[in-house]
Design brief:
The chain has 473 residues and is of the alpha/beta class. It has 19 helices and 17 strands.
C-alpha cells in the first residue's frame, strides 16, 4: 500500500468528457484522458483492504490493489504486466466495462470508490504508448490445431491464450473484419476501432490466423472444421434480438437496434453497407425501446446523426437514485444510472409498454400507442398515450444464439434458454472436441464476462488436448 492515508487526503476525480456540443459533432472517443500524475494520485486512494471486495466484483479477478500500488510508485511497466496477467484486453474494459469492481470497492460505501476503470485504461494505453505491449509467441509449438468460430471478446481472448500455449489457432469471422460485437455493435465514440486493430496485430504476431468473411455453417461447413482441427471453440455470441410482436411491427422504420448500430459502425470505418436499406435518424423523431447499454448507444448514435428528437422508454419502473448500501454493498446495485449518451439530450420514461405501432398510407411508422404499467407489468387503466415517431429502435436485449446454420448442423445440446449447453468448468459441448464460451454459452452478458469465459475455455481446451496446462483459469 503506497499511501496509507491516501483515501483520506485525496478526493475522487473521474475522467472528464468533452462538452456535449463538441462531442456530438463526431463519432470519435470523447473521454479526456487524465495525466499520469492524476492517475497516480487516484491510485493512491486504494486502501489495500484486508478483504479486497473489488476482486469479488471483477469477473476476471484483476489484482486491483496490486496494480494500483505499482502505479502510485510509478512502476507502469510492472503494472501493465500484472494487469495483463488476468485480462487480455484492459484497454477495452477500461473503456466500456460498467465497473462492478468500483461498486464493490470499500470506499463505495461512502459513494467515492477508487477510479479503478480509468486507472486500468490509463495503464493499458500507456503500455502501448511506451512499447510494453509486444507479441508473445510461444517458444514451443504443440502441433495441435484449434479453430475459433467468432472474433468477439470471448473468441479473441481464447485465441490469444491458446496461441501462447503453442497451438496453431485459426479464427473464423463472418464479417469483413475481426472484433465481433466490439467492432460492429459498440459505437466508435465509446470504443475507437484502432483499439481492436492493435490487439489483432499483436495476436497475428503471436501466430493467430484470422479468416474474415467466412461464415461457418453457411459458406464453410462445420464438418470441415471438425475434420481439419483438433478442437473447435464456438464463440459466436448471442445474436438473436428480442422482438416486440405487437400490431404494426412490420411498418417501415421499426428496426432492431443492432441493425442500426452496425450500419453506422460500417460507415465510420468506410466498410460498405452491402445490399441493405440505410437506417438513419437524421431529422427524425426517434423512439428507443429498451433502457440498457444498447439503447444508450442508439441514443448517442441518433443524436450524432442529427435526430430531431430522441425519447427512450423502458417497461421497468424507474430505479431509485441511490441504493441502500446496508442492503446492497458489495453487490451490483439497482439504481438510476445516466449514461453519457442520455446526458446528450434524450427524454427518458419508465413503466411504459408499447401496445401497437401506427403507420401512414406509405407503410411508415408515425407513432407508438403506449400504456403505463404497474409493478406487476399490468396495464394501468386510463393511462394510455401516444408518442410520435419516424424511427423506432428495438433495444430490448438478446434471447439466444442464432440456431440456423452452425448450431443446427452441429446438433449440440442446448439449455433451457436456448444457449449451447456446457459447464463453466470444462466448456465442453455435447459433441466431441467442440467447446463453447461467451454469450453463446451464458447468454447476453458483459464484455468482461466474455473475456473471462474465453480465457477459461482456453484453459479447458489446452488441458483436453495436452493432458496438462499452464494456462490460468
Amino acid at each position: 500500500m503506497g499511501k496509507i492515508t491516501g483515501f483520506l487526503e485525496i478526493e475522487r476525480e473521474e475522467r472528464d468528457y468533452a462538452p456535449v456540443a463538441e462531442r456530438t459533432r463526431h463519432f470519435r472517443e470523447f473521454v479526456l484522458p487524465p495525466t499520469s500524475e492524476d492517475v497516480s494520485r487516484q491510485a493512491a486512494r486504494c486502501m489495500d483492504c484486508g478483504v479486497p471486495y473489488c476482486h469479488r466484483g471483477c469477473p476476471i479477478n484483476n489484482q486491483i490493489p496490486d496494480w494500483n500500488d505499482l502505479v502510485y510508485h510509478d512502476e507502469w511497466e510492472a503494472a501493465a504486466r500484472n494487469l495483463h496477467s488476468t485480462n487480455n484486453f484492459p484497454d477495452v474494459t477500461g473503456r466500456i466495462c460498467p465497473a462492478p469492481c468500483e461498486a464493490a470497492c470499500t470506499l463505495n460505501i461512502d459513494d467515492v470508490p477508487v477510479t479503478i476503470k480509468s486507472i486500468e485504461c490509463a495503464i493499458a494505453d500507456r503500455a502501448f504508448d511506451e512499447g510494453f505491449i509486444v507479441p508473445e509467441p510461444a517458444e514451443v509449438k504443440t502441433g495441435k490445431r484449434v479453430a475459433v468460430v467468432g472474433s468477439g471478446p470471448s473468441g479473441l481472448a481464447a485465441a490469444q491464450q491458446l496461441a501462447r500455449a503453442g497451438h496453431d489457432v485459426h479464427v473464423y469471422e463472418k464479417n469483413a473484419m475481426p472484433g465481433g460485437l466490439l467492432r460492429y455493435g459498440i459505437p466508435d465514440f465509446k470504443l475507437e476501432k484502432q483499439v481492436i486493430e492493435r490487439r489483432v496485430a499483436q495476436m497475428q504476431g503471436e501466430g493467430v490466423t484470422f479468416h474474415c468473411s467466412v461464415h461457418v455453417g453457411v459458406t464453410l461447413s462445420v464438418a470441415e472444421l471438425e475434420r481439419d482441427f483438433d478442437a473447435v471453440l464456438l464463440a459466436g455470441g448471442s445474436e438473436r434480438p428480442r422482438d416486440l410482436p405487437v400490431p404494426g411491427r412490420e411498418l417501415k422504420g421499426v428496426e432492431f437496434a443492432m441493425s442500426f448500430l452496425t450500419q453506422q459502425n460500417r460507415r465510420v470505418s468506410g466498410e460498405p453497407l452491402g445490399d441493405v436499406e440505410p437506417i438513419l435518424a437524421t431529422g427524425k423523431r426517434v423512439v428507443v425501446i429498451g433502457g440498457g447499454d444498447t439503447g444508450s448507444d442508439c441514443i448517442g448514435t441518433s443524436i450524432r446523426q442529427g435526430a430531431a428528437s430522441v425519447t427512450q422508454i423502458e417497461i421497468m419502473p424507474k430505479p431509485p437514485v441511490k441504493e441502500n448500501k446496508d442492503l446492497t454493498w458489495p453487490q451490483w446495485p439497482l439504481k438510476l444510472r445516466t449514461s453519457s449518451s442520455q446526458e446528450e439530450g434524450a427524454v427518458r420514461d419508465f413503466s411504459v409498454m408499447t401496445t401497437r405501432f401506427e403507420g401512414n398510407d406509405k407503410g411508415e411508422v408515425v407513432r407508438l400507442h403506449c400504456v403505463r404499467v404497474d409493478e406487476k407489468m399490468k396495464a394501468v387503466p386510463g393511462s394510455e398515450f401516444v408518442l410520435d415517431a419516424d424511427l423506432v429502435l428495438l433495444a430490448m436485449g438478446f434471447v439466444s444464439p442464432v440456431k440456423e446454420g452452425l448450431l443446427a448442423d452441429l446438433g449440440v445440446e442446448l439449455d433451457g434458454r436456448g444457449n449451447v449447453k456446457a459447464t463453466d468448468r470444462d466448456y465442453a459441448t455435447s459433441r466431441p472436441k467442440v467447446f463453447v464460451a461467451g454469450d453463446m454459452r451464458r447468454g447476453q452478458s458483459l464484455v468482461v464476462w466474455a473475456i473471462r469465459e474465453g480465457r477459461q475455455a482456453a484453459h479447458a481446451i489446452d488441458l483436453a488436448l495436452m493432458g496438462t496446462t499452464l494456462l490460468p483459469r
